[in-house]
Amino acid sequence: MNKTSSVARAGQKKKGAFLIMMKYLQKLGKSLMLPVACLPVCGILMGIGYILAPAAMAGEVAGFTAGGFAYTLGLFMIKAGGALIDNMAWLFAIGVAIGMSDDNDGTAALAGLVAMLLFQNLLSSGVVSALTGKEAAAAFGKINNQFIGILAGIIGAVCYNKFKNTKLPDALSFFSGKRAVAIVTALVSLVFTGILFFVWPVLYGALVAVGEAISGLGPIGVGIYTFLNRLLIPVGLHHALNSVFWFDVAGINDLGNFWGNTGTFGQTGMYMTGFFPFMMLGLPAACLAMYHTAKDNKKKMVFGLLASAAFCSFFTGVTEPIEFSFMFLAPGLYLVHALLAGITAAITVALPVRLGFSFSGGAIDAVLSSFLPLAENPWLIIPIAVVVGIIYYVVFRFVITKFNLKTPGREDDDLEAEKKVTLANDDFTTVAKIVLEGLGGKENVKSLDNCITRLRLEIKDYTKVDDKKIKSAGVAGVIRPSKTSVQVIVGTKVQFVADEMKKLL
């Protein structure tokens, strides 16, 4: 009996830990929506720019001409879009820091920026070379990536949440409270910098070795590479694999040889071709599936993001607005996407089809590269992409509905209904006091946040929470998603109640 109960308790602990992790990942995913929303328009600007100035993408070596008004205008649009696309790490550092903080305060954004500045500077190739007295590993040339940005944002948010109310001795009182956050963040970031100094090049080098090992496996190797490429995007290590296949690290130089017409017909381009079908129609079809499975009252809200992201992916091959919209909200679905991408790439190369890109696997690159001498059966990309699009739509829709995944527009909050809730008492201070008492006092509250209609609280002891007491404040309802969280449905005046509660904590 004791053995059975201990096994059951262990199982419950594992389940609880899994739920906590998923909740954290979903919060991280939501925090990414702010910076991700900036990306589609930038990708579209770059796409239009490359149409006007193909030489800026492929170079004059591919037969395109630089110069003239169209080229100048196109180059201007490319640089405008690239200002954000090329600096996603910075957007993620700031956006994640704000989104993961307890009260979305700008101080958290500053802390995320501090962490990012330290990472980017101290782990740059130049600084590493100066510190070690020898040439820096190739890994440090790819330190400005999304993973580093997300890590910086998380560090900034954690430091803010932990130290925003820090009280220092009178002699140091100027640095108390929120002013202490940036200082602590800098110190914590230095520790992580030391860890990354040793860990990052090892991981990078290991992946380069993996890439070299699979480079001779033909279409199967292409499939494995593409699968790993997608799988590694969240941590920024896909650059390690790309360097093996696209550039001259292992003598392949797929990208340079294709556009320079210095490769081998039927072989050169095989490590780029497989990206076109799922970037052009696969992921846009996934957007359609996410839109169709969104709650009816949230479809208008997510349409703009999904439609613009799909358009961006199709034309330019910039897929981050789509992938980062669900990779943390539904990591299992992202694994499905990586598998589909790998299978798509292997089959496309085996048919055979050969195309290349100098930017990414969108329609613009597909059209431009189809005229080059090393292109093989470029017309097949269209029917392949159509089939891949259908498969992506069916699979995504099935997986989302089967497992009730929280993709954009499928959040638990019934916003439209809750927006109609009227707070019975407009004395927000009194409401806040009663709710706090019902929660077991400020000692029982770990963190406070709010959405459009709800107070969201993390608590220490769920047995101290008195639902009746909370409801006596005039709120519409109390929800307990887990033993460590409580949600109080207030309505559209929730911000006023949240502000008063923060004063009491």
Report what the structure shows.
The protein folds into four domains: 1-30; 88-214, no CATH class; 248-402, no CATH class; 415-504, Gyrase A, domain 2, CATH 3.30.1360.60. Helices cover 64% and strands 5% of the residues. It is built from 24 helices and four strands. The protein has helices at residues 2-31, 33-36, 39-52, 54-58, 69-85, 88-100, 106-122, 125-132, 146-163, 179-214, 218-232, 238-246, 254-260, 270-273, 275-293, 299-316, 320-326, 331-350, 363-369, 381-402, 415-419, 428-438, 467-471, 494-504, and strands at residues 445-450, 454-459, 477-482, 485-489. A four-stranded antiparallel sheet has the order 1-2-4-3. The longest helix is centred in the middle third of the chain and has 36 residues, at 179-214. The model has no long low-confidence stretch (mean pLDDT 87).
Radius of gyration (Å):
25 Å
State the helix count. 24
Our count of domains comes out at: 4
Task: Give the biggest beta sheet.
Answer: 4 strands, antiparallel
Helix content: 55-70%
Question: Strand order, biggest sheet?
Answer: 1-2-4-3
- Which runs of at least 5 residues are low in confidence (pLDDT < 50)? none
Class based on secondary structure composition and strand pairing? mainly alpha
Distance between the termini: 44 Å
Q: Which sequence of SSEs, written as H and E, runs from N to C? A: HHHHHHHHHHHHHHHHHHHHHHEEHEEH
Tell me the β content. Answer: under 5%
Mean pLDDT score, rounded? 87
- Large-scale geometry: globular
Number of strands: 4
